[in-house]
Write a structure and sequence with these properties.
This protein is α/β, with parallel strands linked by helices. The protein is built from 16 helices and twelve strands. The strands form five sheets. The protein has a four-stranded parallel β-sheet with strand order 6-5-7-8. Helix 6 runs parallel beside helix 8 and helix 6 packs antiparallel against helix 12. It is flat and about 100 Å long.
């Protein structure tokens, strides 16, 4: 349903028009007087790229030289990654495409610009404030991005977990990728990675991602409710008036920063709950919750019904073959594996990323990965359950009181009717 246009919207539209009339000759005057004007940003694709740093500690190939994982090397378009002697070397020939960070299952490649949580915040920030947000690459856009355009070195830099989390919270996100733009791109594999990631996220979320291929179809319209919120906030800052009291509807509209903060708080609450429940293993080593897994778990906390759409892999143990050597526990990059009780194997599904290293290092091949839905990933929240139980009891008590009051009223009416007769 379209939002009703009211008096405040008229004022906003008028203020936009007046903005250009405040000093119509200012630019000309400055030029004639030789006054330096502010520098106009210039288009430079290098501003949106950065060389990733390698962290050897979680790297599967560094932890176990016989590991089959070489995802980073397979995807690198210029063979700039070398792994040997337990270390990772990124050569100067690196194209800064970021694909190695996108495909690494243990997030061993650190690139602040495209960290999963940062990616989510960029896309969510654009989608929350605008009618449509676009994710694209420097090669496709070839100009400075607008407020609702998230520009990356390569569209393949967004993992499936980030797409899933974004699609669950913001269905107004599209990808801008002109036809054949990837055909002659040196970032070989970026388009394929994008397709696989989006297909996975669509399967998980039950939602379809939009796609734009024509530059003329890109629009930048700020959401009216956020224009109203910004306008009201500006008046509050300027005049000190509590304008929201004049229009209660604006008081209920959360700003972009507020929505992102709420999402960040949900992640923090999730970390807290997991830390209390199973934050350390039997060897007192703190488990590691990957950023991608944080985003997935946070989305599932809000929409547990989607768990049946997700297929996750966790190790299971054949106890007839297990010798309780503990090699799986020592090598697990996130410390999700454990030996509990009398030495029985256990894995914490919320932390396990399904990398399969435990199955590779097991000397007796007692472990194997099995696929199942993500129901086990939904973290019970005792506080939320208590609130729900309290609300249910309060509702039942109210209904009981209402029924008793109705019964007493009917009895009183019967008595009055008898007296009247």
């Amino acid at each position: 349903m379209a939002q009703q246009h009211d008096f405040f919207d008229d004022i906003i539209d008028i203020s936009k028009g007046l903005g250009a009339l405040k000093d119509p000759f200012g630019g000309i005057t400055d030029s004639l007087m030789g006054v330096a004007t502010s520098e106009t940003p210039t288009w430079n694709p290098a501003d949106y790229k950065e060389k990733p740093r390698a962290n050897t500690i979680p790297c599967l190939a560094c932890k176990y030289e016989k590991s089959s994982c070489r995802a980073c090397q397979d995807v690198c378009p210029v063979n700039a990654i070398e792994i040997e002697d337990g270390g990772i070397d990124i050569k100067d020939s690196c194209r800064k495409c970021g694909l190695c960070a996108a495909v690494c299952p243990t997030e061993a490649f650190v690139s602040p610009r495209i960290q999963p949580k940062k990616l989510y915040e960029k896309i969510a920030g654009a989608a929350a404030a605008h009618e449509t947000a676009y994710v694209t690459c420097t090669r496709a856009l070839k100009r400075l991005p607008r407020e609702n355009e998230v520009l990356l070195a390569c569209v393949g830099d967004v993992p499936a977990e980030v797409w899933f989390s974004v699609m669950v919270d913001y269905p107004n996100v599209s990808v801008y990728l002109p036809l054949d733009i990837c055909t002659h791109c040196r970032n070989a594999g970026g388009e394929e990675i994008l397709g696989e990631a989006i297909a996975t996220a669509e399967e998980w979320s039950g939602w379809s991602m939009g796609l734009e291929v024509e530059p003329r179809d890109l629009v930048c319209h700020k959401r009216r409710e956020y224009e109203r919120k910004e306008f009201m906030d500006n008046i509050v800052r300027t005049t000190g008036l509590a304008v929201s009291k004049l229009n209660p509807a604006t008081a209920a509209v959360a700003s972009v920063s507020q929505r992102l903060k709420e999402h960040s708080n949900r992640i923090s609450d999730l970390d807290r709950m997991l830390s209390v429940a199973c934050g350390t293993n039997q060897q007192k080593r703190r488990r590691i919750l990957m950023q991608r897994r944080q985003l997935v778990l946070t989305a599932l906390q809000q929409h547990p019904e989607l768990a049946e759409n997700l297929a996750v892999r966790t190790p299971t143990c054949d106890y007839a073959l297990c010798t309780m050597c503990g090699e799986c526990v020592r090598q697990c990059p996130v410390h999700a594996c454990d030996l509990v009780g009398a030495g029985r194997f256990k894995v914490e599904a919320q932390y396990c990323i399904g990398c399969g290293l435990c199955t590779e290092v097991c000397p007796n091949h007692a472990l194997s990965l099995e696929e199942h839905d993500a129901a086990a990933l939904v973290v019970p929240d005792p506080e939320a359950e208590k609130k729900a139980a309290d609300a249910k009891r309060a509702h039942e008590e109210a209904e009981r009181t209402k029924a008793e009051a109705k019964k007493k009223l009917n009895h009183a009416l019967d008595q009055i009717e008898k007296l009247a007769g």
